[in-house]
Amino acid sequence: MADVRTFSRYDSSLNKKFKTMSSKANAIISRHESNGNYVMVNGVKTFYLDAGSGPVVFCVHGVPTSSFLYRKVAFALEERGLRTIAIDLPGLGLSDRPEDFEYLFSNLGRFCNRFLDELKFDEVHLLIHDIGTPIGLSMADRNSSRIRSITVLNSMLDVEHFVKPLPMRPFEKPVLGEAALAMLTPTTFPLMMKSAGVVNSDVISHEEMDAYMHLLKREDGGKAFLKIMRSFEQTKEFTEACYRAWKNPDYPVQLIWGDKDPFLSWEEQGRAFEDARPGVLVTKVESKHFLQEEAYETIAAKVKELSQNV
């Protein structure tokens, strides 16, 4: 049986790690944690946001985020009779950051399948974003019978030939990556959010941006994040698995794309999904990379619509 525990307060042992975090940001993280649970998966204490009831929408985030990015989507889905399960991948958010974990996309995909096994979810609707897409597609390729539908948000499909956006490239380099991470703070993160994350920066408070940074770095200072950035699985074999899962006719798929994303533009990345599955439903929204922050109602409505077509 899965070892599932609910925590009503943010882990007090971590408060010492967050001496610079505002009390409001601390309260935001505490509230986020109280809306989820923990489960042990292969020895890794794994957090997940759990909201609503009904058919399960399994959300997989990318970098440099966590399940926190899905908090608004989760409650919009709840209003539509769906249950959100949004995982914090190992190394990010409130989940453990084991030093010996293999952060390859394929292994994270296996981990997600094991996570769903522990929670005894036989069927899920996938909602995936950023590197959460190759991770989620890898998961689907290994266990397609579990998948009821797939909704992809701004992501990449041709992983083999993917070139990281310029602001993310330093993180893959030793020394340079550590320096870039040190410069990513609650003061500088809002600048990135405004330039590449959202169209309307008023949709996210400074305290929420502070929370994002502390969920990224936590007690390891972001070392696990750097390992992920240096573990992109850009092989032909893995990319073929992603295409195979995306093109699988056993379940419906759709794209929801922030059309002002300077990191993963429609022409450079979105078009590959459309070309691989002609006729796929495409919904473009006026947003940038973190469209979950401002297009959450559209995302929830479209996921609900697709779930009804199964």
Any low-confidence stretches, pLDDT <50, length ≥5? 1-19
Radius of gyration: 18 Å
Widest β-sheet, arrangement of strands: 1-2-3-5-4-6-7-8-9
Annotation field: number of helices: 11
- Alpha-beta content class: alpha/beta
| N-to-C CA distance | 30 Å
Let me know the CATH homologous superfamily: Alpha/Beta hydrolase fold, catalytic domain
User: What is the CATH domain class?
Assistant: Alpha Beta
What is the oligomer described by this structure? single chain
Determine the CATH topology.
Rossmann fold
Task: Write the element-wise H/E pattern from the N-terminal end onward.
Answer: EHEEEHEHEHEHHHHHEHEH
User: Could you tell me the number of beta strands?
Assistant: 9
Major sheet, described briefly? 9 strands, mixed
The CATH architecture: 3-Layer(aba) Sandwich
Q: Which percent range describes the beta-strand content?
A: 15-25%
Q: What share of the residues lie within helices?
A: 25-40%
Tell me the number of structural domains. Answer: 1
Describe what this molecule looks like in 3D:
It is built from 11 helices and 9 strands. The chain has 310 residues and is an alpha/beta fold. The chain has a single domain, classed as 3-Layer(aba) Sandwich (Rossmann fold). β6 (124-130), α4 (132-142) and β7 (147-155) form a beta-alpha-beta unit. α3 crosses α4 (132-142) and α4 packs across α9. It starts with a strand and ends with a helix.
